Amino acid sequence: RKEVEQDPGPFNVPEGATVAFNCTYSNSASQSFFWYRQDCRKEPKLLMSVYSSGNEDGRFTAQLNRASQYISLLIRDSKLSDSATYLCVVNRGGYQKVTFGTGTKLQVIP
Amino acid sequence: DAGVIQSPRHEVTEMGQEVTLRCKLISGHNSLFWYRQTMMRGLELLIYFNNNVPIDDSGMPEDRFSAKMPNASFSTLKIQPSEPRDSAVYFCASSGEDRGFQPQHFGDGTRLSIL
Predict the structure, then answer these.
(1) What are the backbone angles phi and psi of residue A47, rounded to the nearest 5°?
(2) How far apart, in whole angstroms, are the C-alpha atoms of residue B55 and residue B91?
(3) CA–CA distance, B66 with B48 (Å, rounded to integer)
(4) How confident is the model at residue B100 (pLDDT cuts 50, 70, 90)?
(5) Which of A3, A56, A69, B75 is 20 to 30 A from B52, alpha carbon to alpha carbon?
(6) Cα B10 to Cα A7, A36, B69, distances in angstroms
(7) B106–A contact, CB cutoff 8 A
(8) Do A66 and A1 meet the contact criterion of CB atoms below 8 Å apart?
(9) pLDDT confidence bin for B91, thresholds 50/70/90
């Protein structure tokens, strides 16, 4: 089983739609979780951290389910500018080293 | 504040040549990561330094790859001799540890093509 698994997509959604991505991780000792966004031919950029109680940043909501070992990202009212690949990132418990998922591609269409 | 700075942005060279990629960390950060990204394999960690010391190089493909951190703010990744299968985007990222685990910040990457 891969350390971090994501559905590669692509997810094609109309503007204004709500879309959710899940990401599963295999290491139960993982302590820190993040979502990154990567635009085509650009570097990954931090979108948001994921906290145990769940957290929201504008249209974006991140949640953590430790029992089932997955994190999720919900995007409400999708914009064309949300089109990108979303990478799930999980640390390996106690180290700065993290594992990146292969990403989920989102395409928001007019 | 300046972000992570990588050079060159693009490199095209012939098979067998030595390639050197450079990275300047964000001021105050003490962890440095080199990644390689391809369509087939996604983002792979090559090596990770903490306070100038290599902590984990298990992702370095083979002896042709070497990385150094001669000081707290600068690192190089060298490939010698280069091969066509080394063609990829190479990213450098840095993070700090002042308040527990901190997320990584990436440079713009170096697009490497080996002919």
Answers:
(1) -95, -55
(2) 18
(3) 12
(4) low
(5) A3
(6) 30, 23, 21
(7) yes
(8) no
(9) very high
- Whose CA is closest to A89, among A53, A54, A64? A64
The pLDDT of B99-112, averaged and rounded, is 86
Q: Any alpha helices (H) in chain B, and if so which ranges? A: none
Place of tokens 């990567």: A38
Hey, what's the torsion of the CAs at B3, A37, A5, B49, to 10 degrees? 0
* CA pair distance A34, B100, nearest whole angstrom: 14
Contact flag B97-A43 (C-beta cutoff 8 Å): no
For the stretch A15-60, pLDDT in tens is: 999 999 999 999 888 888 999 999 998 999 999 999 889 999 999 9
Cβ-defined contact of B108 to A49 (cutoff 8 Å): no
A78 vs A73: CA distance, rounded Å: 13
Strand partners of residue A74: A20, A61
**Interchain CB distance below 8 Å, A91 and B101:** yes
In this model, does residue A93 exceed pLDDT 80? no
Query: Token match 């919900």: residue?
Result: A74
3-class secondary-structure state, position A82: helix
The pLDDT value recorded for residue B42 is: 87
Write the Ramachandran bin of A65: left for phi over 0, alpha for psi from -120 to 50, otherwise beta: beta
**Which residues on B lie below 8 Å from A105 (Cβ)?**
none
pLDDT at A64: 95
Closest Cα in chain B, distance from residue A15 (Å):
27
Partners of residue A46 in chain B, C-beta under 8 Å: 103-105
